[in-house]
């Protein structure tokens, strides 16, 4: 299976935050951001694997700033690293005040997806070729995150 550049999985989703998306602070619900993150990461992982996928884990979701009513939220996702059938996807979330043009980093997240064959079983995925400095940095640190995920899963299984 031939490796693919990370840029081929890059996916951007932009939405405007409307009243139904907000809490009593007039900022977007965290759960809505999580929904957008899972959606954009799903598309990125399917673009890379050209397979159906399932979300295997959400390693982290770090919020840095709120997104306010009427602002745009933009999510960018791409596959950073692969294992046999799994893909790590990085998502960065930015907000934009559409009246002033001010932009800020709102959140970042790492998720893991597994590619499935036509029988719903995990199947191999292509390796990643990082090209940009950001892609290279995330690729180089991915095995450490993979090991931490594996350890966390083992510890969780011991406590069941």
What keywords describe this structure?
single chain, 160 residues, alpha+beta, five-stranded antiparallel sheet, two-stranded parallel ribbon, 2 helices, 36% strand, globular, HotDog_dom_sf, Thioestr_dom, Acyl-CoA thioesterase, Cytosol_ACT
Structural write-up:
This protein has 160 residues and is an alpha+beta fold. Helices cover 29% and strands 36% of the residues. The chain has helices spanning 30-49, 133-158, and strands at 4-5, 11-16, 52-63, 72-82, 86-96, 103-116, 128-129. It contains 2 helices and 7 strands. This is Acyl-CoA thioesterase. Keywords: Hydrolase.
On the 0 to 100 scale, the average pLDDT is 96
- Portion of residues in beta strands equals 35-45%
Oligomer status: single chain
Number of helices: 2
Q: Which percent bin holds the helix content?
A: 25-40%
How far apart the termini lie comes to 37 Å
Given helix and strand content, the structural type is alpha+beta
Give a count of the beta strands, DSSP E runs of length 2 or more.
7
What is the element string, with H for helices and E for strands? EEHEEEEEH
């Amino acid at each position: 299976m031939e490796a693919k550049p990370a840029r081929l999985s890059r996916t951007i989703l932009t939405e405007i935050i409307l009243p139904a998306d907000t809490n009593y602070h007039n900022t977007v619900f965290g759960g809505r951001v999580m929904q957008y993150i899972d959606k954009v990461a799903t598309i990125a992982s399917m673009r890379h694997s050209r397979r159906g996928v399932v979300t295997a884990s959400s390693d982290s979701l770090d919020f840095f700033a709120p997104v306010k009513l009427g602002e745009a939220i933009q999510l960018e996702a791409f596959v950073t690293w692969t294992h046999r059938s799994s893909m790590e996807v990085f998502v960065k979330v930015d907000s934009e005040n559409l009246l002033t043009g001010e932009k800020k980093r709102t959140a970042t997240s790492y998720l893991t997806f597994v590619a499935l064959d036509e029988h719903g079983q995990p199947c191999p995925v292509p390796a990643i070729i990082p090209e940009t400095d950001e892609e290279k940095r995330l690729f180089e640190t991915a095995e450490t995150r993979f090991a931490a995920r594996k350890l966390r899963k083992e510890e969780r299984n011991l406590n069941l």
